[in-house]
Amino acid sequence: MDETYIKIKKVWFYLYRAVDSQGNTLEFLLSPTRNTEAATRFFLKALHFSTDGASQAHPVEEQMSQPAAAANPAILTLRVINVDKNAAYPKAVANLKAAGVLPDHVELRQVTYLNNLIEQDHRFIKRLTKPGMGFFSFETAWRTLQGYEMMNMLRKGQIQRVDKGDVKGQAALVARLFGVVA
Question: DSSP letters along 97-137, please?
Fold first, then answer.
């Protein structure tokens, strides 16, 4: 898990991103702040995605009141979370463990070089957003970043029934999703 910066209306916002050990994108969140609350919100969103495939649909307080670890056996397979030296991460993980959302056996590792996989994955987003010189609204940025992330997931072969190198299949999928004639 890591965050990178995105410029919106000449103000820097934070794009939180998570990838698994194979480099597959798990989840992403655009936030105006880089603090414990934003980190907690992202952890909850990423945990819900990795356990039941759903994105965050409930407020943080409501999710923290429902222990996900007990209800979902898939979360028990989570062993390690690698993050950078941001001070908000240990606080967020401690809050989630105290609330019973995150199992106690999950280890948080704050080692700079263990994050190289996601740091390299950020290059894809930066390569697309830099030439545009930023976005003009949060809504536009969020929708555009969702498209970038989904196309990146398609390119990585994370979409079921469409192989990584199947360009025709990928084009057909995009055409079906957006109602475009291929």
Answer: HHTTSS-TTPEEEE-GGGGHHHHHHHHHHHHHHTTTT-BS-
Provide the CATH number for the domain around residue 71. Answer: 3.30.420.10
Contact 75, 47 (CB under 8 A): yes
- Let me know how long the chain is: 182
Which two structure tokens, joined as six digits, stand for 28?
């992403």
Q: Tell me how many domains the chain contains.
A: 1
Q: Amino acid letter at 101?
A: V
Q: How far apart are CA 102 and CA 88, in angstroms?
A: 16
Distance CA(109)–CA(21), nearest Å, equals 14
pTM: 0.75
> How far apart are the C-alpha atoms of 57 and 124, rounded to whole Å?
27
The torsion region of residue 136 among left (phi > 0), alpha (psi -120 to 50) and beta comes to: alpha
Q: How many angstroms separate the CA atoms of 177 and 61, rounded?
A: 34
CB burial of residue 138 (10 Å; 0-12, 13-18, 19+): middle
Higher-confidence residue of 163 and 73: namely 163
Strand 11-19, strand 2-8: pairing: antiparallel
Q: Which domain holds residue 32?
A: 2-178
Give pLDDT, residue 50. Answer: 56
